[in-house]
């Protein structure tokens, strides 16, 4: 069983930065995918970024490429998402999630955190 707890969300002005963290507990394997997804009001949950538990295989959604950086510290059992140059379209609830492989599809993920709200004002 894997448990996830996000933190670091908040209100930021357009152009600003935030770093999200996800505390991970449970047993994980090197092939596991650790991802961030987001869901804006009235929209479907969408993929943001993914990395393997041992730090290879980074992939990003086109909408965040070059602005967001995903990282993992398996010694500290933490997944992070550094978000720069934020814009109002980034406003959403952000979720961390774990899959048994590096994937980008929502249904591939079995474990989810409760989410943290990110609001970007214009």
In DSSP terms (H or I, runs of 4 or more residues), the helix count works out at: 0
Low-confidence stretches: none
Number of strands: 11
Q: Taking all residues together, what is the mean pLDDT?
A: 96
Relative helix content: under 10%
Strand content: over 45%
Secondary-structure-based class equals mainly beta
| Biggest beta sheet attributes | 7 strands, mixed
Oligomerization? single chain
| Gyration radius from CA atoms, angstroms | 13 Å
Shape: globular
Distance between the termini: 40 Å
What order do the SSEs take from the amino end to the carboxyl end, as H and E? Answer: EEEEEEEEEEE
Brief overview, please?
With 122 residues, the protein is mostly beta strands. The protein has no helices and eleven strands.
Write the SSE topology.
Layout: E1 2-7, E2 10-13, E3 18-26, E4 33-39, E5 46-52, E6 59-60, E7 68-73, E8 78-83, E9 92-99, E10 109-112, E11 116-121
Give a structural overview.
This protein has 122 residues and is mostly beta strands. The chain contains no helices and eleven strands. The strands form two sheets. Strands 2, 4, 5, 6, 9, 10 and 11 form a seven-stranded mixed beta sheet that branches. The protein has a four-stranded antiparallel beta sheet with strand order 1-3-8-7, with no helix packed on it. Strand 4 and strand 5 (46-52) form a beta hairpin. The protein is globular and about 40 Å long. The mean pLDDT is 96.
Give the key terms.
single chain; 122 residues; mainly beta; seven-stranded mixed sheet; four-stranded antiparallel sheet; 11 strands
